[in-house]
Each structure stands twice: as structure tokens, then as C-alpha cells.
Amino acid sequence: MMTAMAAAKAYAAAGSSAPAAAAAPGGGQDFSDLLKSVMTDAMQASKTAETQIAAQVSGKAELIDVVTAISSAEASLETVMAVRDQVISAYQEIMRMPI
Asked: Residues 75, 7: contact at Cβ < 8 Å?
């Protein structure tokens, strides 16, 4: 089960490796660009893991490389799911607010 602290650490790690995106009007990074880069990183990690698995099956990769790639893909997926859960929770909280 993903804890809040683990999600925060994973999100911070994913954010630190994200490339610099276009600056938002306030001087920070645009949220949509941030989400796009995190999703791209998660998809790339999954593709890398699949490539490593195929290379291991054909005898061209070490098992440790496969395990590392799968762990990276899993961490990326857990980060995306944690962020998604927090966005849904925030949306539901906003919808419960009285007008």
C-alpha cells in the first residue's frame, strides 16, 4: 500500500528529474507541462522495462538490469497513481463545498 510519505518522496524524485518546461505566468512551471512530463517519464520507464525484459529473454541483458528497470517503472506508476488519487480527492472536496 502506498503511504503519503512514500508518494511524496516518489513525486519529489520524479519532479527533480523532469526537464524544465515553459514558465507559467507566475514564474513557475505550468501544471499541465509538469503532468505531461511526468506521464512521459512513466511511459518511457515502462517501455525501458519492456525492452529490458525482451533483451533478457533473448539472453542479451543481465537480470539485475531487468529488475532495476521494472522497479523504476513500478515507482513511476505508483507516483502517477498517487498524484491521480490526490487530484480526484481534491476535486471531490471542491464539489462538496457549499456555493
From this structure: no
- Give the residue ranges of DSSP H helices in the chain: 4-17, 31-57, 63-96
> In the prediction, which pLDDT does 94 show?
94
Residue type, 17: S
Angle at 87 between CA 15 and CA 79, to 5 degrees: 40
CA dist 52 and 45 (Å) reads 10
Put residue 59 in one of left, alpha, beta given phi > 0 → left and psi -120 to 50 → alpha: left
Query: The C-alpha cell of 51 is what?
Result: 525492452
Backbone angles phi, psi at 29, to 5 degrees: -80, 140
Amino acid code (one letter) for 11? Y
11-63 pLDDT per residue, tens: 666 555 444 444 455 667 788 888 888 899 999 999 999 999 999 999 999 99
Around Cβ 73, how many Cβ atoms within 10 Å? 20
The pTM for the full model equals: 0.64
